[in-house]
């Protein structure tokens, strides 16, 4: 089936086909990435091949792939073609790490995994991750440090079944961004995150690991991370008394 020759047969199909052709093409390309037809680090077929297969013009292909380039899912490599972007620590930090030092210097943390357990999801975790009443999560706590100074205390909740193969070791120091492991070990690519920033007071564990007093004010960031297919796959609570949160509105 080619996109340009498709004739809508009902009202729903007509509504879909009313969208710009490049958007339909983009969505088909995205679905192939989600389905694993093109894996992280792998290359797409040539533009000519895609034109022939989908029945669209080269201009449509280029506009569709450019949209995915802008969103960080594809990248063009001169002389080699267009490939699916694999998560790397550097890229994940650039896109998703929004803590900075007070003078604006970027953070280069090491994460120490304190605890991990599979347990029933709390009411808040069920709500944030769209889990049913019997949903279970892989719950992680970790401290993120730089030059041996503890800076961020974090609690993460992940759908247990989705992340059964994550395989992190309690007590280990992790230099890689955790999103790299999500992709490499569990086939989950994080496409976007939504953060909610507020203030909280340090509880006993938080105070112990951050070296502050119980009840001290801390910056709190609650994050929901979304996979390529739109699923909510991570709920994270991060706390710091030492760093700022930086973002950009575009």
From TrEMBL:
Residues 19-87 form the HTH gntR-type domain. SUPFAM superfamilies: Chorismate lyase-like, Winged helix' DNA-binding domain. It holds the Pfam family UTRA. Keywords: DNA-binding, Transcription, Transcription regulation. GO terms for molecular function: DNA binding; DNA-binding transcription factor activity. Gene3D superfamilies: Chorismate lyase-like (3.40.1410.10), Winged helix-like DNA-binding domain superfamily/Winged helix DNA-binding domain (1.10.10.10). GO terms for biological process: negative regulation of DNA-templated transcription. InterPro entries: Bact_HTH_transcr_reg, Chorismate_lyase_/UTRA_dom_sf, Tscrpt_reg_HTH_GntR, UTRA, WH-like_DNA-bd_sf, WH_DNA-bd_sf. This is Transcriptional regulator.
